[in-house]
# Entry
Amino acid sequence: MKFYSRKLIKPENLNANNTLFGGSLLRWIDEEACIYTMTRLKSQHVVTKYMSEIDFKSSAKQGDVIELGMELLSVGRTSMTMRCLVRNLFTQKTIISIDKIVFVQVDENEKPMPHGITEDDIRAEKERNV
# Structure
């Protein structure tokens, strides 16, 4: 898994318990997964289709730095499926894991559209980045 971005937990990201608000974290994950998909498909016309069970393992507090990791699992005709892990940068403690996030490429009418990426393309990319 590669970790692509980091976030500093600030007061505006905290809930009433003074820990990271889950909604803020999910927004960051959705954005990171979207950027991850757009860069691989070379298209800005992608939408979130599905997120599997979200498993909050631990929290973060003000001043913590978290990092968001994505790993591509598979590609479909119109979709890409990845998993996500968010961890504390310094302690390496897992904050959240999501086993499956699916994005779909869409046309101008927001209908699924084939993207042309194959499993072989993904394998080749993984080999280049090892």
